[in-house]
């Protein structure tokens, strides 16, 4: 039996061989999984703007808005009109304002006097021993007064004469009507214009080259004969923005003359009512 005397191989002093490292691929970041993005948060101002625009109106809201607009426009026009109508008094002098106040006090006093007169008549009827005779006397007096107001009887008393000369023909019927209303408000009791008796039912109209009163044409100069208290009638025509100032703007000439005796003798025929009848037994 043979013996192998070959010495065993000694291990390498350097030790067992190691596998060579393999090159590693460079590390790459792994992208995160795609996440759904949330919409940006809106501010309060943005939400308010989005709610207001574009506007969204119902039919009822549009009708209400239109009505409110018309109402506001009407109020504005009325305020403007009232402001314009009171403008002459804003620029009035102190003595003019005092005169206007005196005129208002005069109107109040006339109403108080009329009330007192009626109270006295009632007391006389109640206390008179012959009530039938007293009632007859008051009836005659009342008939005379009503005749003056109705223009069926002539009248005389203190008052003024108003003469309007309109050389350029600028004065119209509405301005003469305003003059009449101003005189009545100042206490005029009987009025005659160019021979035409003016009563409660009188009407004015523009005629060719003049003015018509109750269908009768009159031409300038226009002359008013007015019975009343002159101290009340004349100032009423001369207030700021009144008759005299208005006529002068139309380049007309106005003359007012006081008189202790004015005669109003133009008469109107008494008209018999067609339907109205006395309710007294």
Shape: elongated
Q: What is the strand arrangement across the widest sheet?
A: 3-2-7-1-8
- Please summarize the sheet with the most strands: 5 strands, antiparallel
Uncertain segments? none
Percentage of residues in strands = 15-25%
Q: Estimate the mean pLDDT confidence.
A: 78
N/C terminus separation = 187 Å
The SS-based structural class is alpha+beta
Give the count of helical stretches: 8
The value of Rg in angstroms is 52 Å
Order of helices and strands: HHHHHEHEEEEEEHHE
What does this structure look like?
- With 281 residues, the protein is an alpha+beta fold.
- 43% of the residues lie in helices and 17% in strands.
- It has 8 helices and 8 strands, in the order αααααβαββββββααβ.
- The strands form 2 sheets. A 5-stranded antiparallel sheet has the order 3-2-7-1-8.
- Helix 4 (94-127) packs antiparallel against helix 5.
- The radius of gyration is 52 Å and the shape is elongated.
- The mean pLDDT is 78.
What's this entry about, in short?
By secondary structure, the protein is of the alpha+beta class.
How are the elements arranged and paired?
Layout: H1 44-52, H2 59-85, H3 87-90, H4 94-127, H5 131-150, E1 155-165, H6 173-185, E2 190-193, E3 196-198, E4 204-207, E5 210-213, E6 216-218, E7 222-227, H7 230-237, H8 243-249, E8 253-264
Antiparallel strand pairs: 1-7, 1-8, 2-3, 2-7, 4-5, 5-6
Helix pairs in contact: 4-5
């Amino acid at each position: 039996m043979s013996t192998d005397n070959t010495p065993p191989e000694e291990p390498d002093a350097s030790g067992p061989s190691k596998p060579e490292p393999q090159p590693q691929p460079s590390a790459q970041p792994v992208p995160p999984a795609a996440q759904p993005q949330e919409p940006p948060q809106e501010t309060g101002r943005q939400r308010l703007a989005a709610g207001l625009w574009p506007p969204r109106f119902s039919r009822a809201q549009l009708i209400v808005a239109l009505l409110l607009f018309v109402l506001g426009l009407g109020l504005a026009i009325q305020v403007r009109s009232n402001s314009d109508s009171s403008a002459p008094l804003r620029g009035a002098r102190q003595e003019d304002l005092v005169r206007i106040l005196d005129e208002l006090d005069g109107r109040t006093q006339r109403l108080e006097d009329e009330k007192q007169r009626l109270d006295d008549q009632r007391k006389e009827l109640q206390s008179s021993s012959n009530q039938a005779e007293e009632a007859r006397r008051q009836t005659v007096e009342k008939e005379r007064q009503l005749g003056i107001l109705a223009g069926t009887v002539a009248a005389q008393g203190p008052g003024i004469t108003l003469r309007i000369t309109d050389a350029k023909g600028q004065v119209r019927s509405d301005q003469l009507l305003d003059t009449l209303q101003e005189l009545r408000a100042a206490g005029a009791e009987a009025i005659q214009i160019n021979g035409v008796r003016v009563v409660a039912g009188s009407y004015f109209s523009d005629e060719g080259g003049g003015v018509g009163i109750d269908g009768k044409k009159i031409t300038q100069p226009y002359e008013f004969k007015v019975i009343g208290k002159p101290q009340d009638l004349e100032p009423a025509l001369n207030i700021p923005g009144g008759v005299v100032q208005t006529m002068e703007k139309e380049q007309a000439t106005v003359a007012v003359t006081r008189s202790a005796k004015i005669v109003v003798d133009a008469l109107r025929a008494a008209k018999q009512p067609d339907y109205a009848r006395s309710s007294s037994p």
